[in-house]
Design brief:
- It is a single chain.
- The strands form two sheets. This protein has a five-stranded parallel β-sheet, with helices on both faces. It has a three-stranded antiparallel β-sheet with strand order 1-3-2.
- The protein is about 55% helix and about 20% strand.
- The chain has two domains: about 60 residues, Orthogonal Bundle (Multidrug-efflux Transporter Regulator, Chain: A, Domain 2); about 130 residues, Rossmann fold (3-Layer(aba) Sandwich), CATH 3.40.50.2300.
- The protein is an alpha/beta fold.
- Helix 2 crosses helix 4 and helix 6 packs parallel to helix 7.
- About 5% of the residues have low confidence.
- It is elongated.
Amino acid sequence: MSQELMTVRELSKYIHVNMMAIFRLAREGRVPAVDVNGEWRFKKKLIDEWLQGRLEAGKEKEEVVRETAEWGILVVDDDEVVCDVFTRLLRREGYQVTVAHDGQKALEIARETELTLVFLDIRMAGMNGIDTLRALKRIDKDTQVAMVTAYPTVDTAAQVMRLGAFDYIRKPLDKDRLGELVREGVKRRRERIEENN
């Protein structure tokens, strides 16, 4: 880690806060940040002073944690092993991850939480991924959804795109592909929020 400037990822690990929350705080001017060629950077000394000020105000990280919860990623799959893989890979990158093992639980979470991105399995017991996708889009049309499947077909891909999914990922998961989808989903969500503000 640079003694002068930290990246968003470095700051995320340093203060244990989700990267999307940091992006949002920087954009709103609520955390000391500098724009270096279009990328946010943070001076460690100023961050330490900022954290100390929050501690003295009796807030510490409580508000930042609430911000983090608002910008989470939801993984919906009835296979616990798949959910564990998603969770491990995403949390390693600093993302806040919530898991639902069926469509109904996913909808409950979506009604209570502003989600950045959903990874949604197509084949699930009970409420399948297609029906869950439709319902998620009714709750918040701007939530970004990437479908998860071990059996991708052209027809299925076309159907989920029409319903509002922006892409899909195959099982078994590829770490690089997952990273691409997270970055794309986060970018799309941020663009929708900026358009609506």
